[in-house]
Batch of 4 targets.
Target 1
Amino acid sequence: MSVQALETSDASPAFWQERVDLAAAFRLAAQYNFHEAVANHFSLALDETGERLLINPFGRHFSRIKASELLVLDETNAQEAMDARRVETTAWCIHGPIHRIAPRARCVLHTHMKYATVLTCLKDSNLPPIDQNTMRFFGQVAVDEGFEGMATTETEGARLAGVLGDKSVLVMGNHGALVVGRSVAEAFDTLYYFERACETLLTAYMTGKELRVCSDAVARQTAAEWAVYLEDACDLHFAELKAMLDEQSPGYKD
């Protein structure tokens, strides 16, 4: 696939709704201040193998991304796209391998959002179960302690995929957060709640008081209850967020 075909490939009706959903996720991330300048990247696999994916073009602010602008990337055009600065190098080097290797990674969202990134800067970057939101992620967070600079090779992406394993969240030490989901709706809901969980934890740390940490048994039970709640809540949440966008910033659908 040539670089010239990056935008037009898979713009068919069969894939259009997925383009629209991913474009919505970018706009929503900007609204929630999860973005950072024109950096960071979201992607969505177009098949079960994870070989072909939708991803944001380099240099476009999250708040302005449209469905039609998303790029289709695979092994045949990735290097050419990076050389031409059509896609950011770390975007492909992180997302490409994770889509191919991680079992739950249909959608991959990577940000440097404030509270999650602060957590990555702490010596202990774990998320103790201190409230319902933190307990949602009990047993679902992997912590990477191997940061050695920006991810500019696919080998680094494969390493990150190995650390992530079957978890839904990767705390990238000294870097940022990455979440995966089986749909854009699931991944964005995870991103939203993970940032809220990190905000609660870090606010609690700022009090200087001892944390009220629940037992593993209670945390595990609460996580299981979350799983039942999330059977339809992710889709309902994302549908409402898109309805808000339709009122405020409908251009994401273009």
Target 2
Amino acid sequence: MRTPIQDVDLLVIGGGKAGKTLAMDRAKAGQRVAMVERGMIGGSCINVACIPTKALVAAARALRTTRRAAQFGIRTGEPEVDVALLRAHKQGVVEDMVAINHKQFLDSGMDLVIGQARFTGPRTVEVALAHGGTLMLRGADVVINTGTRPALPPIPGLAEARPLTSESLLELAALPRSMIVIGGGYIAGEFAQMLNTFGARVTMLERDPQLLGREDPDIASAVAEIFAGEGIDVRTGVAVSRVTRNADSSVTAVLADHAEVTADELLVAVGREPVAADLGLDTAGVRLDEQGFVAVDDELRTTAEHTWAAGDVAGGPQFTHRSLDDYRVLKANLAGARRSIAGRLMPYTVFLTPELARVGLTERQAREAGREVRVARIPVATIPRARTARETAGMWKAVVDAHTAEILGVALLGHEAGEALTTVQTAMLAGLPYTALRDMVITHPTITEGLNLLFAAVPD
């Protein structure tokens, strides 16, 4: 007997930031809403990405601070990492946020469906329910918000060696004594430094000439110097040709020049791939791009009528705050307004220690765009608040238009840099010249006060 189709006003496939926020919003407004989620209540950010990793970053920072307590006049014993307590800390943060999200979902009035959805036609899915059975759903409007998962590069022997990913690493029962990290991007950097702080001997293998390939070389070099100073073995311009899991459970990475690196475990952090291939999107008339992401226009419309995509699965910057803004765009466009993602000023912070906060163009991007620029740099050690915290590593950099004094972008590598970034972003959105931040009266001593110093360093 054919399963009857249930019609809803809004059908959301995947409960990431954009999808879950839109689903709750529309359900509270009185619409019939169904959200299908494979089982990760709250999305990947809460369960396996931003929240658990930043909880562990906080633990690593607490450990670093305790180790140097004598610098602040405090005597302590040698701190130890208790893996059980560390996991309990991480899991406690995650479980609290999952519980909050679950309650919000139910309170909104939406239908939360746990299962795997697959399109059977335009705006119609069959859901294999987690508890057994199937359900057919059809939406007047459909939003695809299924996110991404860790990607494994096609390195011979890698899959068979059972590598860790940014998700499986969070469930380790014991800390390895040594770790190979394949990758030199943001996720790789956060995990490499965290593991090093917890006591692992870390070797980073990056095939590109520098770490953090999207950043200017001077910023990437400053990060590499910090890592090297902490004892991380950073190797750039190296390619891994083969990986082997040895008889003693260790892992060996063979490089293109035949050199070998062996460690207790290996972490692959070379990016994430879209969760889209198994959704039957071709049946729904939804096209994928060359990388397998859902193709959307500037209003987040897919190639199918009344079918939208948001968040990481739609390509572009993979940030939770980007996904939240996708929700705003979808909310407006579903209501008949015209809101676009074109020209969004997208900030981000890499939660290294110290943090790397960025918004706007890099110096390289600005010059490639034909802009004549003036560049300012200051060492973080010149910022009084950094000195009081004894966190003087890093540098701040600003790029301004040589003719208009427009702020084109900043890269702030330093203590609590993410907390200062929004001030710059606000000035950029307001179209203020760099001199507004140079001359603004800012509370002393704060990290944001460093903006006075940074923009005073812009050359005439």
Target 3
Amino acid sequence: MSKLSDTNKAPVRTTKTGQDVAENAKRGEIDAFLSAVRSIKPSGATGRVLLALDATMSRQPTWDLASSIQCKMFESASRSGALRMQLLYFRGHGECRASRWVTDGGELAVMMSKVSCRAGQTQIGRVLRHALKENEAGRLNAVIYIGDAMEEDADALGAIAGKLGVRGVPVFVFQEGNLPGAEPVFREIARLTRGGWFRFDVNSPQVLSDLLASIALYATGGLKALEARKSSADVLLIGQMKGGKGKPT
């Protein structure tokens, strides 16, 4: 639950600090994302998107900033009125949890704000198997995975990803950092599922926000909706989904 803010008035500041400039820039990025989301025209069907997060300790240095960006953007995306979202995260020693499905991005943001990093191994295989199970229960339009490491059997992950690909469930992988061994496997998961691989850089939240808006549009309207709008992020997403064409971020 969110905490009540202090009602005492802060002192009036007459000069802008570096933090002020950063906050203004962040607000501008969120406003731009809101504009992109408003341009989404739902097809009448409700898209289902699984957001999966690596919450192991290697992501701790940037976790708070990354979570803040993700929360704001999915809260905004839900305002299109055509998305159902589920949060899944793994951390610690075998802990892997999935939330209920929600349509309120604010509710998803609250869930995300309660997650903290704990030491442990990656559980990407469990994420992919969960996606398969959810797709059996009802059409899953997209999986978004945000992580930085890969500590599992690459062939086993490829086999599960292939099953998602056959079922038409694309996985969009956002990789943070450059840990050895992760990128080739992440790219292969994206290729096998006809999804996309992108660099997740917390210093460039606008790129992430634009791509999330494009994924939201795809989840509700398919490739035709992306091809009709053709924003720069739409074109990048289409290129990735059609064989890895287009320059990753």
Target 4
Amino acid sequence: MRITTCLLDLSRCVTDAADLVSPAVVDHHRRTAYLTEQIGRAMGLDADILGRAVLAAALHDIGAFSLGERLRALDFDRHLLEHAESGYRLLREFDPFAEVAPIVQHHHLDWEFGRGAEYESEPVPREAALVYLADRVAVLFRVGRDPLAQRTAIVCAIRAAEGERFHPEVVAAFVAVARSDSFWFGLAEGVTPLEPGHGCDLPVGAAMEIDAEAFASMLAHIVDFRSHFTATHSCATAAVTDVLAGQLGVSPATRHELRVAGLLHDLGKLGVPKEILEKPGPLTVTERQVVDAHSYHSGRILRTIPELLRVADWVTHHHERMDGSGYPDRLAAADLGLETRVIAVADIFTALTEDRPYREGLDRRGVLRAMNEMVVQGHIDPVVVDVLGDVVEDVSCAVDSAQEMALAARDAVLATPVC
């Protein structure tokens, strides 16, 4: 499935998903992108170089899979290379982002009076030094406080690290733009090249065709790799969805869309803390509400890309039930299309086969028995479940293959094991 969009819109989708992790990290990527653009223009960078830098800034912390990693990345004095390496490995899997992957990889590399121009005998992209300084300024800036009152302290902190941590040319450009009150007001207001209507004149803001499934796969990895309990869930759900759609005679175009939806159905779970995902016992009412919100957020994020509106609708409602007892909108059978019903069945089948902190995964017979009980209870579509039963061997083979590929991808992406 190919869609027409621009790289900045894709990065905005990633950023919105990453911001679900905690209120403490909301808009950090956007502010870093704003700072990168402003400082880069002061440096006189050409449009291609500046565009790459802004895109890298918009994606720089996506390798920080947990809340703890994201919060540690917001510590001005910490030097954390693990999430930068993971981000690099993740981005290089998706061709349109591959060019900025080395920038993300080195965005915490100190300048060390010129030694930072290389890493392990390889040249470091010039843009990495720009994103590094922009990231650290974004960390120092305090939202809600008078922006002009913060100027002197932030400028002094950056200048104090000139040469040792930060490239002198980047520091000089930052000091120059920091003299402008408008620069600080823009930072406070969150005016960024990632917002619709910004009028970005950089090449990364131009429309292009991209492979939606490849993009969805990258996002699914960000969601799933947070816990070993979910490491293969989205890819396996997409595989089940694909087999069921084929058996049900869904058109090839819609089948592709359904695979994308299967990969992205749990995108909103980035807003569910790891301690809830891995809780060994029953959830409290509050914890259950946090989990239940994930389908709404999945759809909200995907609606930022117009060509994924159908996918957004399906993933929003994949926890609705035929009897109207599901969430988030309490829709009943008459309001649920076949696509939504297929994703719901695929998600449940996959989840029941997987180990969870509170139970072991069920075998094939146990899964089908449990799902038929859900049919009797009025929760899921009997026709789709019947088809599942007819092709359960094909489904199981597809799941095994998808899980094997997802685990290989996890090993290739993670700089350190999930724990």
